[in-house]
Task: structure prediction
Amino acid sequence: MARWFVSVLAAAVIPCASVVVAAPPAAGLGWGKHVRTIDGLPDVRAALIADDGTVVAALGSGGVVDVSTDGSRLVRIAPWPAGGVAEAVGLAWLPGGRVAVLDRASGRVVAAPGGETLADLSPARPSAIATGAGQLFVADSDAPRIWVASLGPRGREAEGRWMDIAAADALPVRLSGLAFGDGVLMASDAANHRVLAIDPANGRVVARSGDRGAFPDMWQDPAGIGWDGRGFLVTDLLNHRVVRVDARGATMDRWGQHAVRPREGAGKIHYPTSTQASPDGSMVVVAEPFERRVQVFGHLPPPDPSVPRMTELPAFDGVASHFSREMAIDGRTMVLWEPESASALVFDLRHDPPIHVTTLGGPGTRMGQFGQVSAVCIDEAGNRIHLADNVRRVFSTQALVRNGQAPAFDPFMGRTVREVPFPVIDGRVVAPIDMVRAPDGGILVLDGAGPRVVEFDPAFRVVRTIGGWEGEARPVRPVQMALDGGGHVVVVDAADAVLRRYSRAEGWFLGEIEVPGLVRPWGIAAVPAEAGVGGALAVTDAAADRWVLVDESSATVRAEGGGTGVDPGQLWEPSGIAWSASDGRLYVTDHGNHRVQSFSPDGQWMSSVAIGRAFVRPRDPQLTGPAVPPAGMPSAEGAADTRASFPSVTTDADGWSRLGSTDGSFMVRFRVLPPPGIVVRDPFDVEVEVTDRDGRPLEGAVAFDAAMPHHGHGMNVAPPVRAEGPGRWRVSGALFHMPGYWEIYVDRTDPDTGARSRAQWSAVIE
Amino acid sequence: MMGAVLILVAAAGGDAPPAGGWLDAVTARRVARNPPLGPVPADPTNRWADHEPAARLGHRLFFDARLSASGTVSCASCHDPAFGFADRRAIAVGEGRGTRHSMSVLHAAHQRWLTWDGRADTLWGQATQPFETAHEHGTTRRQVLGVIAGDPELRAAWRAAFGSDPPAADADDASIDAGFAMVGKAIAAYERRLVGGPSAYDRWWTRRAAGDPHADVELSEPARRGLLLFFGKADCFQCHHGALFSDGEFHAIGIPAPGGMPTDPGRYAVVDRVRADPMNAAGPHSDAREGSQARISSTLVNSPERWGEFRTPSLRNAAATPPYMHDGQFATLAQVVRFYSTLEGAVSLDHHRETVLRKLGLSEAEQSDLVAFLESLGGSPPAAPWGQPPAPAAAPVR
Result:
């Protein structure tokens, strides 16, 4: 796909008086009037707009470009590697009309034009940048801190320093956006769905606002912040809207309606990541990389009933999911991570199209709930699904309580087995980007903090770490990973558009695989030699809307599929890809079209699964019966019935009940008080004894929880759990406030490893 | 379900209406859990809860408009006996325009959580709150106690109730706080007497449970059909169960909001307040600080799912207290039932949220039958003297 740039000279200087907003919008006016859309901006992670309407767009590895109101484009920073910026994710005005560009991959801030480095924050992975009051601010995405430096007229005057953000609560902060206005530094905390107003002098949080949701003063993954002279504009990513808040984070105004048809625009918004106002406060630009576009908005006198100002959505039947990017396949099981509902969808691949059999988890901060998952892998034979949760910072292991009789949707088939906190290696918390399960059971994690690859055993104990690569061996922008036919680790580099191969045990760099024509590769899957195509690697190209099958040794492209569009077999921002040995197909998460599609290895589209519907390629009418998998594939077999492998409660004559944890690491004896048992809406206590299999008391903190999975809520109270002796605990004042089906959990944390295991049973309360 | 432990709790009370004829077994089992109201449950947090002299004092205070900034607002202004101890407004108006529809005080003593968002965990704690809310009474506790201390009749009633004198207007803060709690307890003692007589449904229930073959005359044909819907296809009993026809808990049902975006956070905004409220069941003025309600209130946790949740109102006497919902947007029971049937205009902001309600698709006749059943839940007004202003009235009632 040809690059679009017109000229290579990066000498543009936008005439613009200053960084600070001169004339704020008049009181009473809101935003939301759609002015124009600029398409054709792939991977546009951030944008600025000048007073004359020129939009400056940061395009990830595609450099930085200026787009004038007449549509002409001027390159400010050439695409990587020519421009020197590997992953442009943020922009901020500098004095004199220059722009500061945040390069996440290298941890640097670069001025454009000019190219000088204003800050080098590596190995930190910064997420957002802002300027104001003569200062430069950069947020770290892995730790709650902000870099502050003074700016002179042409660059840095004083050394910068890290300023720790003390949020005064125990929640792990994940800074995603930053803006400076009216003496306040406003940051979005995507992990906790809130905005933080910070004192730029000392990093103290002076106000915070928000919680997860779609109602007023609520957010779902706020991604970016801009200042419009009166308030802070926050892109509410998963609510598909922009909200303006005051210096304390309270909502002033909001606009944006969720785009529902593919590529729908004209003021509808779809996953906005960044927003900025023009310095004179007359226009706002919103970047939507999902749609490869930015939209420009102007003022509206409120209220204008014709302008959609909320995110009301049509109701869907069937699976109302967006089938995001992360996916994994093992045997007949496919798991997709769905960010908007913070849950994992499990599909049965014995059927064409696959059947959604259950959904794991949901949003929240407790064990068994999820923040945002960045990587998934499956051990079907061992009945384990592992998910890496980057917000809660745990590896969550789930199991399926599966009735093997017939595939059926059971919303509560999943069970949380265990959670292991991310380890700290060489002073840095592991930050999983991708996860792969090796045939020998080892679990390899592509770690963004490095970058490095950490290998774990199935219990998530660290086995080894490889990485610390330099020069040609170092992946510039690692995104996904696979194990090839030789058992080597292959990492996709989205900036260099190459694959890099390393030995699994020692991490030796074994060379690049240069695939012709790759623009922005993302997903990768190994296709075994037995598939009839030889040892090959399947790679998705998110920018070219296609996937390619590459010979492992010669790097020649043997087959490809896709093409830009929404029809069956076409793709938009495809991301994850996995090989299904059971039916000899490649499954691709067609992220931009909210669906999963399958292809034969020679490139033919086979099936699509989308929101509420699914369909397959029409069969050859001369074939009778169901489609036959390619020769050499394992024959169809029933799903294992796993129910018997889960412990069940036994009640003894003395009124105590006994149960083992799902992973067998502890036994629990429990008794509900007062007798005869749980009465709805009446507080009750539970006496708990935690022992090993031989009945000896076990150390380790114990937690108690309960939930009504049909209603998606737990208890309204948090009963204290007090130690009463070795391995003995008392839960005081639990309360089931509604009748119905309750699941009850006792969780024990292993004091040596920090791993948390769960014992689970259920009760129906009348 | 692996490892399920089935715990059954027998229905409280004695016999229930047996199945037979038009009443099938499944419905009969559910009807058994919606019996007539029993006696008002004990309130150990209020030692004067059942003390009649305290109720007489509370009766006077409830109707006394001097306990407000302008001297024109009493509890009865919005909780008017003529309107079922509610008012007919969508949004209450006290000293100023309020934010929600006034709830009926009838049977409030049976509820665990008081008001739409459950901001009070005791009846007496709730009674203190409107005095100091700007748009309700707009006054202060010191001024309230000043009125009482300055009125010989109220002073006498206070002495009869509590055996001591009310604190003077210039007393120290601790005495004022304690006295204010006693004001609440007196009003709560009065409110505990606000229970209506048996409704047609109650008479039917009791007669049929006793084996009376003519019990069914208590319910009209439409009301009987409505009963079957209420406990069957319309699923109302899921939240409106129990003697009170309310589970006493909080749900967000997505009733229509202007512009499609609700603005009232409901339960979400008060959970932390309840835990910290000095007038709660665990606080210094409670007479059962270690009791069951205290434990519940001090371990409450909030979560984003609580946003927009409101307490299930009791359906007893509902027909006498229009309009309906926390913002009074439905003027009639027919409109309420139509909303549940069609979900027209329901708020839908997130297509992943599980909704509590699903469209029922009831016919016009079915909707009308449901309304007939709800009308059968109305009973006679509370017994004298409690159901009327005290005689002589201490001040004009607005």
Observations:
- Chain B has a mean pLDDT of 91.
